Amino acid sequence: MSRRTRSRPTVPVEAGRPLRLEKALPFLLLVSAVCLFFWEIITGRGFLWEDILYQYYPFTFHLLRSLKSFSLPLWNPYMFGGMPFLADIQTQVFYPLNWLFVPFFTPDQRHVFWLVEFKCILHIFVGAISFYLLMRDQGHSSWSGLIAALSFAFGGFMVGHLIHLTIVSTFAWFPLVLLFFLRALRHGTMSAAAGGAVALGFANLAGHPQMSLHMVYALGLLFFVYIATNWPRERAAFLRRHVPLFLLMVVGGFALSAAAYIPACRLSGHTVRELLTYAESAEISLSPMAAITLFVPKFFGSVTGAGTDSVQYWGGPMAHFYWETALYLGIVPLLLAFYGAFASRSRMRWPFLVLAGAAILLALGRHTPLYRLAFDFLPGMDRFRIPARFVGLFGIAVAFLAGLGADALFNYEPRRPRSASFTRFLLVILASGGVFFALLASGGLNRLMPQLQNGRLYANALRQTGVSLAILVIAVLLIWIGFRRRLPASAAARVAAPLLVLLTFIDLFVFGHSFAVGTVAPEHFYPRNTIVSRLEAEKAAGPFRMNARRDNYMLLQRNEGLIWQLELLEGYTPLRLADVAAFNVPTGRRNDLMNVTYRIEVDSVHGRLEMVENPSALPRFWLADTCVVVPDRMGILSLLADSAFDYRRVPILEKEPSPRPQSWIGTANVGTVRLISRSTDRIELEADCSLPSLLMLSEVFYPEWRARVDGRPVEILRADYCLRCIPLSAGKHRVVLWYDAGPVVLGIVISALTAVGLVAVIMVGRRRSRGGGQS
Fold first, then answer.
1. Residues 152 and 238 reside in one and the same domain
2. Does the residue 728 lie in any domain?
C-alpha cells in the first residue's frame, strides 16, 4: 500500500456541497450545541445560581443603572459601609460588552438577570468558536476543531465556573489569545502580536486577574518550551523577533486594560488579599483522588443548582470543592489527547504537553512542592487562592492535544508503528476500566474509600462507573473504525468523525447541563418587601445604614443594597477592605460609630426576625471638641472595646490634628453640621464651629477620597480605626469631599492610546499582507 501524504491535513469535502455551507456548518453546530446545553436558562425555565445571584447580578444591576444615568460608579456606599466600586475589577466597569447592554437596562429584575445569564452563555460560545478557529488556524480539520472546541467549552472548568461570571468571561478569550500567539510565532508579524494584545486586553477587562495571571504564565511557558524544542531553526529569530513580539502582546494587553487595572492595583493593597497566607492560598487544592473524575466525573456525587443529579457530593469537605476541582473534559477528547501527544507531528505538541503537566502539578497545590515555589517566587501568585483553578490550563492543553489527536486519526497512515502502539494502549485502558469496575463492584475499594460503605454512595459510584465504561467502549470502537486500514481516510473520517463529535457532546451534556440550572428567580431572592419599602421611604430624611445580618440570620441579602440603593454593613466580595474586615469592636459600638440607624433583631426561640431602630447611633456627620491620639492600630481597637472609654464623644486619631480641637467648659454646643448635597462619589457639608473642632464623618476611610475646606485642599485623617475626620478652625466652613478619579482618568488615557496604537499596527499589517499577496 502506498504512503498517503497531505500538504494540509483536512477531511475531504463531499462533492457538490456548497463551500459556504461547508464553512458555516461548524459554527451552526456550535451555536446549536450551546443553545441545547443551556436551553432551560435561555427560555427562563431555570436560573443561574450561587455567585451569579449573590454577587454578579447586583454588581451588574448597579453598573447598568449608573451608566444609563451617565454616571461612572467610582464609590459603592451600599456594601460593607462603603468601598470602591470601579476599582473592584470584578464589577467589569470597562468591559465593552457591559456598555452594549446599557440601552437594554430596565428596573425589572428578571430582565437584568437574563442579561447576566446571556452574558455568561455568550462567553461559552465565544470560547467554543475561538477554540475552533484556533485549531483551524493551525491547519487542522473541522472535525478536529469541533472536538477540541466542545471539550473546552463544555468541560468541567468552564461549565463548573459558569456561576462565576468573571472567570468564564476572562478565560473564554484564551483560545483567541493563543490563536494570535501561535500565529505570531509562526509568521513573526507585529499584526498577529497586536491581535493577541487586543484579545488579552479584552480578557483582562473581563475582570478576573487570577485567570489573567494564569494565562500570562501559560503563554510564557508555551513560548519558552517552543523555543527550546525548536532552537536550531528559531535561534536566529529569538531575540530579534520572538521576544519583542511576545512583549508587545503581553504589555499591550495590560496597557489596553489600564483603565481597569490601575484603580484595581491601587485597591489591592488595601484589601484582605494583602493578608493572604500560603495556607489560605492552598486551601482548595486538587486531590490526587480526583484523577478518578477524569473518566468518571460523578463518582463522588455532584452539585447542581437544584441540589444534585446523582448523590450529594462527598469528594471534598464542602460543596464548592465540586466545581473548583472539576477535571472532566470528556472521554473521547481525553483518548484523542493521548493519541495526539505521541502521534501528532505538530511542533506545538511538546509545549502543550508541558503545559498540561505543569498545570496539573500546580492544581495539586499543597500536595506537591511546585505550588509553594510558585507562591513564594512567581509575582502575583501570593495574591490568589484555590490552586485547583489551574485545571483550566490543563483543560485547554488537553483540548488542544485532542484536536491534534483527532487530526492524526482522521488522516491515519497504516504503516506508522505508533498507531499499533496506540491500539494496544486503548486495549489497556479498556482493561483498566474493567478491572476498576470489578474492584468497585466487589467492594475492593471500600478500604481506600470508606464512604463507599454507604449504600447510596456505593450505588451511585457503581452506576456512574458503568456509564463511563459504556462511553469508553463506544469511543474505543469509533477510534478503531478510524484506524481501519481497509477504509480510505475519507471514508473513515466520514464514519468516525461525526460520531466522535456527537459522542463528545452527549457525554459532556450528560455530565454538565444540569449543573447551572437553579430554581430561584432574582425577584424572589431580592423581593421588594415591607422592610425594603420602609427603608426606601426613610432615605429622604438623610443617609443612614442598616445592620441586616446577625450570625446566619439575614433580613436582607448581603449585596441587596446595590439593588435598592440601601447602605448596608454587609456585603459579598473577596476584595473587602482590610480595615473594615478588621474592625472588630463590640457590635453595639460598631453600629453606633457606623451610623447604623436600623438593625436586625433575632428571636431565635420563635424564629422571628425584625428590623428595629438603633436610637444610640451617632449621626453621619458631627463635630467633636476633643480627641486622643493612638498611633498603634491594635491599640485603637482595644480602646474602642474598653467599656470605660467614651467613644461617643472622643474620637481616636492616629496622628495629631491641626488645628487641635478645643473643649468647651460646661455643656455648650460645639457647633452644627448641615448636609448640603450627597452622591455616591461626592459630599458637600456646611459646618459652623464655635471653637476649633473635628468634623467626624461616619464614612469608610479610603485614600482616594480628597477634601477641600473653603476651597483649600486639606488632609482627611483616619479616625476610629476606619472612618474619616477633618480638623476645622472656628467659624463657618464649606467642606467638600470627592472621590479622586485621577487614576481612572490616567488608565483611560493609557487604554485609549494603546487601542489606537494596536489598531494602527493591525491595519498596517493587513495592508502589507494584502500587498504581499498573503491571505
1. yes
2. yes
431: Cβ contacts below 8 Å, ≥ 6 apart? none
φ, ψ dihedrals at 736, nearest 5°? -125, 130
Alpha helix stretches (DSSP H) within 344-416:
349-363, 369-377, 391-410
Helix (H, G, I), strand (E, B) or coil at 775: coil
Q: Shortest CA distance to 518 belongs to which of 34, 39, 36, 41?
A: 41
Residue 283: inside a domain: yes
Query: Distance between CA 221 and CA 241 in Å, rounded?
Result: 17
Q: Indicate if 582 and 447 belong to the same structural domain.
A: no
Cβ proximity of 619 and 541 under 8 Å: no
Sign of CA dihedral 371, 374, 376, 380: negative
The predicted structure's pLDDT at residue 557 = 95
Residue 156 identity: G
User: Do 598 and 630 lie in a common domain?
Assistant: no
The cell for 366 is 499543597
DSSP-derived letter for residue 450 is: G
Q: Give yes or no: residues 511 and 409 share one domain.
A: yes
Whether 405 and 441 share a structural domain: yes
Could you give the CA distance from residue 6 to residue 70 in angstroms, rounded to a whole number? Answer: 58
Exposed / middle / buried, residue 529 (Cβ in 10 Å: 0-12, 13-18, 19+):
exposed
The whole-angstrom separation of Cα 686 and Cα 715 is 17
Whether residue 243 sits in one domain with residue 157:
yes
659: preceding bond cis by omega (within 30 degrees): yes
CB 322 within 8 A of CB 303: yes
Q: What is the mean pLDDT of each run of 10 residues along the chain (775 residues)?
A: 39 50 88 97 95 97 97 97 97 97 95 97 97 95 95 97 97 98 93 96 97 98 94 85 94 97 95 89 94 96 95 93 96 95 89 97 96 96 95 98 90 55 86 94 92 95 96 91 58 77 97 96 96 92 94 93 97 94 95 96 86 96 95 96 95 94 68 95 96 96 98 97 97 97 97 96 82 52
Give the integer Cα–Cα distance in Å for 567 and 545. 5
Q: Which three cell numbers stand for residue 455?
A: 449504600
Q: How far apart are CA 596 and CA 581, in angstroms?
A: 17
Q: Which domain holds residue 712?
A: 621-740
How far is it between the farthest Cα atoms of the chain? Answer: 111
pLDDT digits (tens, 9 = 90+) for 293-333: 999 999 999 999 999 999 999 999 999 999 999 999 999 99
What the block records as the C-alpha cell of 508 is 459532556
C-alpha grid cell for residue 60?
A: 451588574
Cβ-proximal residues to 339 (8 Å cutoff; 6+ apart), any chain: 405, 408, 409, 422, 479
Grid cell in block for residue 695: 468634623
Question: Are 219 and 270 in the same domain?
Answer: yes
Cβ(738)–Cβ(681) below 8 Å: yes
3-state secondary structure of 471: helix
CB of 55 closer than 8 Å to CB of 575: no
Q: How far apart are CA 270 and CA 575, in angstroms?
A: 9
Rg (CA), the chain: 30
Q: Are residues 598 and 632 in the same domain?
A: no
Check: CB of residue 112 under 8 Å from CB of residue 64.
Answer: yes
Number of structural domains the chain divides into: 3
Establish if 767 belongs to a structural domain: no
How many residues are present in the chain? 775
Q: Which of 572, 595, 613 is the last residue of a domain?
A: 613
In 3D space, the residue among 543, 478, 527, 522 whose CA is nearest the CA of residue 504 turns out to be 478
Query: CA 596, 602, 604 angle in degrees (round to 5)?
Result: 165
In a domain, 491, yes or no: no
DSSP string computed for 30-41: HHHHHHHHTHHH
Instruction: Give the DSSP letter string of 619-682.
Output: PSEEEES--EE---HHHHHHHHH-TTS-TTT--EESS--SSPP-PPSSS---EEEEEEEE-SSE
Q: What are phi and psi of 705, to 5 degrees?
A: -80, 140
